[in-house]
Specification:
magnesium ion binding, Rossmann fold, hydrolase, 38% helix, 3 domains, six-stranded parallel beta sheet, 616 residues, 23 strands, 18% strand
Length: 616
C-alpha cells in the first residue's frame, strides 16, 4: 500500500517545489530559488502559511508591486539561462491581474515562470467574494482567466488532489527548451486550505536537466547542402544560443568556417564583442558591419532566434533574392519561419553536428575579409558616437560611452525599453555570455529596476548595472526599496530626457508633430520639476545627480565602493540619436493627412515597403 501524508493543498505544493532540483556544473541545487509573494486574503492563510513552513528550503521574498516582483523572477531565470527559476504568488483581484504584463513578457521571451495567483472559492458559497470579477454569462470565469492567453500552461485547482497532475505538467513546460514559458496555476482559496492524503512519492527529490535534442538526419543533410552551396553565409545568433549555453560551439563553428556572426537583442553577448567574426547587432538597431552583410547574404543560419521584425528590418533587410534561411531552433514553430529550411535541434548540439559534417568547408575568404573590414569601419563610427563631449545635454550614446569606460565589459548591463535598446544594442561592447541583458522581446517599460534585482539574485558576486530613462523610472521604481531591504546592490544610471524621447523621435520621423510624448508637449498647467535623486534617496538608495559626462564617470567609479544600491541621474538630449548603423522599420504612415510632412514621409514609406518580401 502506498504511504501517504496528510497535508493541505498549499502545503503539498510548497513541499513539492522545495524538492525539485537541477544540476549545474556538477552541483545539485534547488531549481526554484524562491517565491516572490505579496499576500492578500486570497493567499495569505493558505499558501502564506505553507510557505512559512518551508522558508529554509524555499525562501520567500516580499516586494512592493506584483508586476515588479514577477519581472524580478523572470530576470532571474534569464540570467540563469533558464536552468533555475522562481515562482510568484498574489491574492485575487488587482494582485492577480498585475501579473498579466509580466506573464506576456515571459511568454514572448520563452522564459520559465510559475505564477500562483489566489482565486475565488471553489465552493462558491461566499460568492461574490471581495475582488471577485463576475461574468454574467459564465460562472466559471475569474480575473485569472486574463492569464490564459499569456500562459504556456494554465490550470485552475478546484480540488486538492488536482495539484499532483498539475505540477507534473507544469514542470514539463517550465523545463522543456521548446515549450518553455509561464505557467499559471490559479489556486482557489478554499482549496489551498483543504487537506488530502498525498502519496509520499509526490515529494521525492527530482533532478531536472535540460533536454538537448539532436537534429534529424534529413534536415541536417538539407542544411549542409545549403551551407556548402553558399558564397556569402551569415549567422544570426539569437537568445537560444545563450539559453543552450552554446557560445563555445558558436565560436568554434564561426572560426572553423570563417563565417561572420551577428546578434539579435536576445543573442547579444553570445560572442564577446571583440571576437573578430562578431559583427555585432543586426537589424533596425544594428551595426553597419552586420547590416551590410545581411543585405548581401545568400545563406542565413538563424540560430535560436524568433526572427522578429527588429532583427529582419521588418523583412526588408535580407535583400538577396536567392537567399536561403536555415532555422536552427529547438522549437519547430521558429525553425520553419519564412520558408526556412528547418533544423530542429538544441543550438549547441546542432552547431556541433554541422561543424563535424562540414569537414574542412570554409566560407570564401573574400567574404570573411570584407566582414572584418566592415567591422573595423564600424568601430571607428561607434568610437565617435561614444566619445565624451562638452555638450550641455549629452546624447544617450555619450552616456553609454561613459558607463563602458568606467565599468568595462565585466559587468552585467541591463535595459529594456525606450531609446536605450537601440543605442545599447549596437554600441555596448559585451564581454562574457549573459553580460548583456535586454528585455526587448516585449519591450516592457518598468522592467529595468526589478529586472536588475532578479539578475543580482542570480549573480550575487557580479556587478549589475541598470540603465533606464525617466519614463520607465516613473512607471515602476518601487523595487529600489526592495533591493535596499534585501542588501542586493545595483548601480542604476537614470537618463532624464523629460518624457518619452524615443517615441517623440519616432513621431517626428513619421511626419508627426511633437505631441504628448515629451512633457513640454503634453496638456499641462505646470511642468513637474522631478528630483529623481531625492526620490531614489527616499527609497533608501545612495543617489546623486551629475552635470556632465566627466562627473558621471566619477560617480560610477565611486559607486563601485558603495555598500548599497546607487542611483546616478543625468539630464540628456531627447532629440539626439546615433546616425551610424540602423535600418528601416515598418511603422505605418497615414495615407491621408493635412500635413505636408506626413505625406512626404508616406511617399518614402511606400518606397521602403517595396523591399519587403511576403512569405519570404
Amino acid at each position: 500500500m502506498t504511504a501517504t501524508i496528510r497535508l493541505t493543498m498549499a502545503q503539498a505544493l510548497t513541499r513539492y517545489l522545495a524538492a525539485q532540483k537541477t544540476a549545474i556544473d556538477g552541483e545539485t541545487v534547488p531549481i526554484f530559488a524562491g517565491v516572490w509573494a505579496i499576500f492578500g486574503h486570497g493567499n495569505v492563510a493558505g499558501l502564506g502559511e505553507a510557505l512559512w513552513h518551508v522558508s529554509d528550503e524555499l525562501p520567500t521574498y516580499r516586494a512592493h508591486n506584483e508586476q515588479a516582483m514577477t519581472h524580478a523572477a523572470i530576470a532571474f531565470a534569464k540570467a540563469s539561462f533558464r536552468r533555475r527559476m522562481m515562482a510568484a504568488t498574489t491574492s485575487i483581484g488587482p494582485g492577480a491581474t498585475n501579473l498579466v504584463t509580466a506573464a506576456a513578457l515571459a511568454h514572448v521571451n520563452r522564459l520559465p515562470l510559475l505564477l500562483l495567483p489566489g482565486d475565488v472559492f471553489a465552493s462558491r458559497i461566499p460568492d461574490p467574494v471581495l475582488q471577485q470579477v463576475e461574468d454574467f454569462g459564465d460562472g466559471t470565469v475569474s480575473a485569472n482567466d486574463c492569464l490564459r492567453p499569456v500562459s504556456r500552461y494554465f490550470d485552475r485547482i478546484t480540488r486538492p488532489e488536482q495539484i499532483v497532475p498539475a505540477m507534473a505538467r507544469a514542470m514539463q513546460v517550465l523545463t522543456d527548451p521548446a515549450d518553455c514559458g509561464p505557467v499559471t496555476l490559479a489556486l482557489c482559496q478554499d482549496v489551498q486550505a483543504e487537506a488530502y492524503d498525498y502519496p509520499e512519492t509526490f515529494f521525492e527529490e527530482r533532478i531536472w536537466t535540460p533536454r538537448r535534442p539532436r537534429p534529424d538526419s534529413g534536415e541536417l543533410g538539407r542544411a549542409l547542402d545549403a551551407l556548402k552551396a553558399a558564397r556569402n553565409p551569415l549567422i544570426v545568433a539569437g537568445g537560444g544560443v545563450l539559453y543552450s549555453q552554446a557560445s563555445a560551439a558558436l565560436a568554434a563553428f564561426a572560426e572553423a568556417t570563417g563565417t561572420p556572426v551577428c546578434e539579435t537583442q536576445g543573442g547579444k553577448s553570445a560572442l564577446p564583442d571583440d571576437h573578430p567574426l562578431n559583427m555585432g547587432a543586426v537589424g533596425v538597431t544594428g551595426t553597419s558591419a552586420a547590416n551590410s552583410l545581411a543585405q548581401e547574404a545568400d545563406l542565413i543560419l538563424a540560430v535560436g532566434t524568433r526572427l522578429q521584425d527588429f532583427t529582419t528590418g521588418s523583412w526588408a533587410l535580407f535583400q538577396n533574392g536567392d537567399k536561403k534561411i536555415v532555422g536552427l531552433n529547438v522549437q519547430p514553430f521558429d525553425a520553419g519561419k519564412h520558408r526556412a529550411l528547418p533544423l530542429v535541434a538544441d543550438a549547441r548540439e546542432g552547431l556541433a553536428e554541422l561543424s563535424s559534417a562540414l569537414g574542412g568547408w570554409r566560407t570564401p575568404a573574400a567574404w570573411t575579409d570584407d566582414a572584418k573590414a566592415g567591422k573595423t569601419s564600424w568601430r571607428r563610427d561607434a568610437d565617435q558616437a561614444l566619445a565624451a563631449t562638452n555638450a550641455a545635454l549629452p546624447s544617450d550614446a555619450q552616456v553609454i560611452g561613459a558607463v563602458q569606460r568606467a565599468l568595462g565589459s565585466d559587468v552585467t548591463l541591463l535595459h529594456a525599453a525606450g531609446g536605450l535598446p537601440g543605442e545599447l544594442h549596437k554600441l555596448w561592447r559585451a564581454g562574457a555570455p549573459g553580460s548583456y541583458h535586454a528585455e526587448y522581446g516585449y519591450s516592457t517599460m518598468g522592467y529595468e529596476i526589478a529586472g536588475g534585482l532578479g539578475v543580482k539574485l542570480a549573480k550575487p558576486d557580479g556587478e549589475v548595472v541598470v540603465m533606464l530613462g525617466d519614463g520607465s523610472y516613473l512607471m515602476l521604481n518601487s523595487e529600489i526599496a526592495t533591493s535596499v531591504m534585501l542588501g542586493v546592490k545595483l548601480t542604476i544610471v537614470l537618463l532624464d530626457n523629460r518624457g518619452f524621447g524615443c517615441i517623440n523621435r519616432l513621431q517626428r520621423a513619421t511626419g508627426g508633430e511633437s505631441f504628448n510624448n515629451l512633457l513640454e508637449h503634453t496638456r499641462h498647467e505646470t511642468l513637474p520639476q522631478i528630483d529623481f535623486a531625492a526620490h531614489a534617496a527616499s527609497l533608501g538608495a545612495i543617489a546623486v545627480k551629475v552635470a556632465s559626462i566627466a562627473e558621471l564617470e566619477g560617480a560610477l567609479e565611486k559607486a563601485k565602493g558603495n555598500d548599497r544600491t546607487t542611483v546616478i541621474v543625468i539630464d540628456t538630449d531627447p532629440l539626439a540619436s546615433t546616425e551610424a548603423g540602423g535600418y528601416w522599420w515598418d511603422v505605418a504612415v497615414p495615407e491621408v493627412s493635412e500635413r505636408a510632412e506626413v505625406l512626404e514621409k508616406r511617399r518614402a514609406y511606400e518606397d521602403a515597403v517595396k523591399l519587403q518580401r511576403l512569405g519570404d
